[in-house]
């Protein structure tokens, strides 16, 4: 009799667990890049149970050099993607209706890092220099910046030579470029770790030069916003994600450890991830996830001012919404 009772209780427990699992709403998040501190808030939200508390079963898919978030969501491989606004707006203009539903990053981390020995002390000194630039949509803020400076990018004597930069810092280390593209939270520190001290470097932050564009926003397809059940799910996701970012700012070292625990590649180091989370926290500080429309409009103006080949040709309509962040409140 006792065995029957134990078995019955076990069956009830299993049934309840199964019911709980079935009740959790599945949601897939595609990251813009590999597992690293740049995405700490999402990994923290999953690890600390914030998504589970919201009734969500969130799968986080790492990105990489061969992963384009817009293509993933277009193919049905994700419900939400992390992307930079230049890429999202370009994709939207080409026909895929991506919409920004939240903006955890308030500030840009993009900058040019130069060797001091080149004599560059101000943007006007770029003339005649070789500058490393990321492409794949990341080049447009740079092109807009050069256009504002009146510098051509064709390699002529009155402009700059653009070196298509890979996702590393080799051009600066090997002196193939006078300056390279870096993020405040990643490649800049790779330069430092490579043996070039900070006092031998000069940096120009896109934020300071007034040519920054919004980075690391959350985007969905328009059809998701037309589905009331999905809207409810997305609101829960954004709220739990921002809770994760709040926790990461309050507990940066723990957040870095959580990121490392989720790094299947084993390529990340504790030192680098702790620094990255600390720098990322500066970019998300003060954000409640609500998009700053003025910042979005500045991004649009920057992209439209990219010279003869702008990333977008007209101001977008319906490219962002507060529908989800309003519901999350």
From TrEMBL:
Statement: the UniProt record of this protein carries the keyword Transmembrane: no
Keywords: Iron, Metal-binding, Pyridoxal phosphate, Signal, Thiamine biosynthesis, Transferase
GO BP terms, alphabetized: thiamine biosynthetic process
Signal peptide (from-to): 1-23
Coiled-coil segments on the chain, per record: none
Catalytic activity reported: N(6)-(pyridoxal phosphate)-L-lysyl-[4-amino-5-hydroxymethyl-2-methylpyrimidine phosphate synthase] + L-histidyl-[4-amino-5-hydroxymethyl-2-methylpyrimidine phosphate synthase] + 2 Fe(3+) + 4 H2O = L-lysyl-[4-amino-5-hydroxymethyl-2-methylpyrimidine phosphate synthase] + (2S)-2-amino-5-hydroxy-4-oxopentanoyl-[4-amino-5-hydroxymethyl-2-methylpyrimidine phosphate synthase] + 4-amino-2-methyl-5-(phosphooxymethyl)pyrimidine + 3-oxopropanoate + 2 Fe(2+) + 2 H(+)
GO MF term (any one): transferase activity
Pfam family, any one: NMT1
Pathway membership, UniProt: Cofactor biosynthesis; thiamine diphosphate biosynthesis
Domain SsuA/THI5-like: 38-255
Superkingdom: Bacteria
Family: Belongs to the NMT1/THI5 family.
Quaternary assembly: Homodimer.
Function in brief: Responsible for the formation of the pyrimidine heterocycle in the thiamine biosynthesis pathway. Catalyzes the formation of hydroxymethylpyrimidine phosphate (HMP-P) from histidine and pyridoxal phosphate (PLP). The protein uses PLP and the active site histidine to form HMP-P, generating an inactive enzyme. The enzyme can only undergo a single turnover, which suggests it is a suicide enzyme.
The protein's name in its UniProt record: Thiamine pyrimidine synthase
């Amino acid at each position: 009799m006792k065995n029957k009772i134990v078995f019955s209780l076990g069956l009830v427990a299993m049934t309840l667990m199964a019911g709980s699992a079935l009740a959790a709403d599945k949601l897939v998040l595609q990251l813009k890049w590999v597992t690293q501190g740049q995405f700490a808030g999402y990994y923290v939200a999953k690890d600390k149970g914030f998504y589970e508390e919201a009734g969500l079963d969130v799968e986080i898919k790492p990105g990489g050099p061969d992963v384009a978030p817009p293509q993933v969501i277009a193919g049905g491989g994700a419900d939400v993607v992390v992307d930079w606004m230049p890429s999202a707006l370009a994709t939207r203009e080409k026909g895929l209706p991506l919409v920004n539903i939240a903006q955890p990053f308030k500030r840009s981390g993009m900058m040019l890092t130069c060797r001091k020995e080149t004599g560059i002390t101000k943007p006007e000194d770029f003339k005649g220099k070789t500058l490393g630039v990321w492409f794949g949509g990341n080049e447009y803020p740079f092109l807009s910046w050069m256009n504002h400076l009146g510098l051509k990018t064709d390699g002529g004597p009155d402009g700059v030579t653009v070196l298509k930069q890979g996702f590393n810092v080799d051009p600066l280390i090997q002196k193939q470029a006078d300056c390279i593209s870096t993020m405040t939270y990643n490649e800049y520190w790779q330069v430092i770790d490579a043996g070039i001290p900070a006092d031998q470097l000069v940096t120009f932050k896109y934020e300071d030069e007034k040519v920054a564009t919004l980075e690391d926003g959350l985007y969905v397809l328009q059809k998701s916003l037309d589905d009331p059940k999905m809207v409810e799910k997305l609101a829960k996701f954004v709220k739990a994600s921002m809770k994760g970012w709040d926790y990461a700012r309050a507990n940066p070292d723990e957040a870095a450890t959580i990121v490392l625990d989720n790094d299947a590649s084993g390529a990340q180091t504790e030192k680098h991830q702790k620094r990255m989370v600390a720098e990322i926290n500066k970019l998300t500080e003060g954000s409640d996830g609500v998009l700053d429309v003025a910042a979005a409009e500045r991004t649009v103006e920057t992209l439209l001012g990219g010279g003869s080949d702008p990333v977008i040709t007209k101001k977008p309509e319906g490219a962002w919404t507060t529908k989800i962040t309003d519901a999350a409140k």
